[in-house]
Amino acid sequence: MKSHKPTHVKVHAKSQKWKDVRGKRSRPPITSSELNSSPVVARMAVEHKATQKKKPNVKRLKSKAKPVSVSKTKTNTPQSVIQKPHTQANGSSAFKMDNDSNDSLDWKEYSLSIHGNGVKTSGEIDDVEPVRLEGASLHNCAERDDRQNHAVLIMQKNQTLCFRGKCHLTCLYGRVEVMGFTIEEGQQSYPLFSPASHCPLTIRALESSDQTRDDKTEASSILPKYLPSASRKKLLKSVTSNSSIILLEPMETPLTRFLSSFTDLSELFCPPVNELMSAVLDTPLNGLGMIPLVAAIEGLKMSKTYREALNMVVGACRGDMDGCAVILVCGSKNVGKSTFIRTLINALLNHTASVDYLEGDLGQTEFTPAGCLCLSTVTEPLLGPPFTHQIPPEHMIYFGHTSCDTDLERYLESLKTLWRRRSPSKETTVVINTMGWVKGFGFQLLVDMIRFFPVSHVVQLGHSGVNQCPAVTPEFLRTAHGHQTHPPAVTALDEFTESHSPPKSYTHVIVKSEFQGAGKQGTAKHQRTNELRELSLMAYLSQLQSPDPGPIRSLHSLTPYQVPQAAVALGVIHCEVVPTHMFYAANASLVALCCLGEKVSSKGGPVLLSQAPICPCVGFGVLRGIDMARGLYFLLTPVNPTVLRKVNCLLLGAISLPSCILTTQSGFDGEMPYITTDYSFDITGAGKLRVFKGLTRPSLMGAQ
Fold it and tell me: Where is the composition biased (Polar residues) (predicted)?
């Protein structure tokens, strides 16, 4: 087959055309994966069957502030790790946490109106420790209606339910908290995801905001809608002034159906092996897709500094600030940055309609597949790991790799481009996530980010007893060198005048993570970083499936778009590929759908990019096939057709399709599409060639 001569883009173009090819191919039957033969695991898997429930679009926020559950502190509180500069970048003063200060007394009173994941401040005392619901106590306070396939649970103040699985939660009476977010009666139902890949979720009952209500009367009017007479009479006996009543319903979505269709992921929402002995399998909740865990299994463990940092940041965001708060969260790998950010965003959403999020971690992204930098507006709580909330960001740039070490300049320029696209008049709180690379060039990038953005708070996470990197205080930043920025030079004259600009100032907070395994990568199934990246990508690709219940369709059975090769440019941005091999590299691969600033056209051949552009990305697709004779790309993507009309560039990066997507295709007796065994990596040059740009070793910096 003859190929056209490639054309490198620098020219103007005619508009592209995306055609939806409606094939006549019938849908092949697909059989479900066989479950594990273990009787315990099989039982749990069967109990997870549920019907799909659409999420109502109901306004969540209320005008009133929500009281907070606060914690106890001994009189001999150690010196706070919150470091206070003289002034804030936003013009307000920093918090003083010393017990004898006036600011501390004001903070104690003010914190009563702040809620964040059971957050407890250092100035209040809570006489009641959380009590885990398990075993017999669950039978006494939970009843299931098999006819309606749901369960009602009565929880008292400070009782907790830690579980694996997934469900819809609706608060019928009182208030509960999940990962920093308060769910009250009258609000919509929320999906909860507690897979084996992450820390199990915990539902915690909070104190009622209205102590004057007639609990028995109101509860007796609520329960008849959900339970038969005998069941509700039993539950009414345990209703008190501090009770919360929640409705738990099974949940099945296109995402969960798609993931469970793969053998390796069929038990993703079951307890991992080390928790099987701690799972409670004979409660009214099990048949709904929830598996309660005994107290021996910890949920989210917060250290004292963790709680103090959450309270302080949420309080500052709710206070009178000159402009919006910009919170940068940093720290080494595996110290809980992502979990802290989710909890922080949830706590902020208790008091505000939205929170902006700037993604700076290429390897562990929150709302997109790996390899992306994005700016997102979060309006709904994050009640599960990243793969459960893959949502289109407002602005996104595809970097194409899980690390920026190959091109530091493009990484920084991409972040600055995203920030410039944010409206200057927007006064929404911004949370910035950073990489776990905090040594060498990685630390220099962190210094640059603090200087580039108008940061008001820097939250630095670490694990006890180990200093992964210096504390990035405002004082330290005055002399620190970044990759693109450097400390201002102070002349002898400046020392006696005030002509030079004042140093950048912000509140610096240190958080010590104390959960088990802090600082170490997870080794259990589904907990390795590469597996987490694959889960996020598979969650994105699940959008290709029909929202209606039915068999999962393989790549070859989905209807693709046909895209003229002359209408879109094709580029490989993570390694060097000769033009004649470009199609071999791109076929059956994940590509980013991007929008170049200049138009693209060709005189008959494909348009190939010679360098990596910094341009908007609107989503991803799978390049299912290439027709050289007709000059067409065949593309599968969940992106809306109205958005696709703007796409004029396909970028191939180092983010590859999970192998299970290609190896589990059904409907073939012989060789599967895209799969071959006729290849040898022993041949010289068979692997990809990585190119490093501008990475001179520190020891050689003065050698030239």
Answer: 29-39, 70-93
Token reading at 131: 């009590």
Query: How far is Cα 314 from Cα 115, in angstroms, rounded to an integer?
Result: 8
Task: Give strand ranges (E) for 520-659.
Answer: 561-564, 569-572, 590-594, 607-608, 617-627, 632-636, 649-652
Q: Which residues contact 258 (CB under 8 A, 6 or more apart)?
A: 538, 541, 542, 545, 552
**DSSP H or E run through 181:** strand 181-184
CA distance 558 to 22: 10
Query: Within 10 Å of residue 454's Cβ, how many Cβ atoms?
Result: 14
Q: How far apart are CA 326 and CA 472, in angstroms?
A: 16
Whether the full predicted model's pTM is greater than 0.85, yes or no, is: no
430-433 and 326-331 strand pairing: parallel
CB 400 within 8 A of CB 612: yes
High-pLDDT (> 90) share of the chain, %: 52
Distance CA 41, CA 529 (A): 25
d(CA 38, CA 29): 27
- Give residue 498's identity as a one-letter amino acid code: E
Closest CA to 585 of 596, 594, 593, 576: 576
| Cβ neighbour number for residue 298 with a 10 Å cutoff | 14
- The string of pLDDT tens digits covering residues 134-167 is 878 888 899 999 999 999 999 999 999 999 999 9
Q: How far apart are CA 323 and CA 211, in angstroms?
A: 37
Helix (H) or strand (E) segment spanning residue 159: strand 159-173
| β-pairing verdict for 243-249 and 181-184 | unpaired
3-state helix, strand and coil shares in percent for the chain, rounded to the nearest 5: 25, 20, 55
Name residue, tokens 């208790």.
350
Question: How many angstroms separate the Cα of 151 from the Cα of each of 137, 143, 223, 326, 533?
Answer: 15, 6, 11, 41, 34
* pLDDT tier for residue 662 given thresholds of 50, 70 and 90: confident
Residues forming beta bridges with residue 168, ordered by sequence position = 191, 249
Indicate the DSSP class of residue 487.
P
Distances in Å between the Cα of 338 and the Cα atoms of 142, 353, 369 are: 33, 21, 15
Element (H, E) at 191: strand 190-194
